[in-house]
Amino acid sequence: xxxxxxxxxxxxxxxxxxxxxxxxxxxxxxxxxxxxxxxxxxxxxxxxxxxxxxxxxxxxxxxxxxxxxxxxxxxxxxxxxxxxxxxxxxxxxxxxxxxxxxxxxxxxxx
Length: 110
Hints:
The protein is an alpha+beta fold. Among the domains are: 29-68, YefM-like domain (YefM-like fold); 70-102. The chain has 5 helices and 3 strands. A 3-stranded mixed sheet has the order 1-2-3. The longest helix has 15 residues, at 84-98.
């Protein structure tokens, strides 16, 4: 898996608040925009999607979500967070830890 070779560093984008998906204590309505408007001004809505969720509607019904990335690192983080193999490995590691099969960081050779 080539993702392991990439360097992880803290950036301005990782220090700012992340967009929350799903239910939160303060539920805000995502911006809903008709497909025709998005097609007419895609660049504007991509910039807007960097900071808020943009739901694209077709005939008044949700048809998709536009996700914007402020930096290339934001794009990498999104890909990693949605990569099926990465998600399987995290789930397997959590199950191992819950079953007492984990390794303490102090026990890992430097």
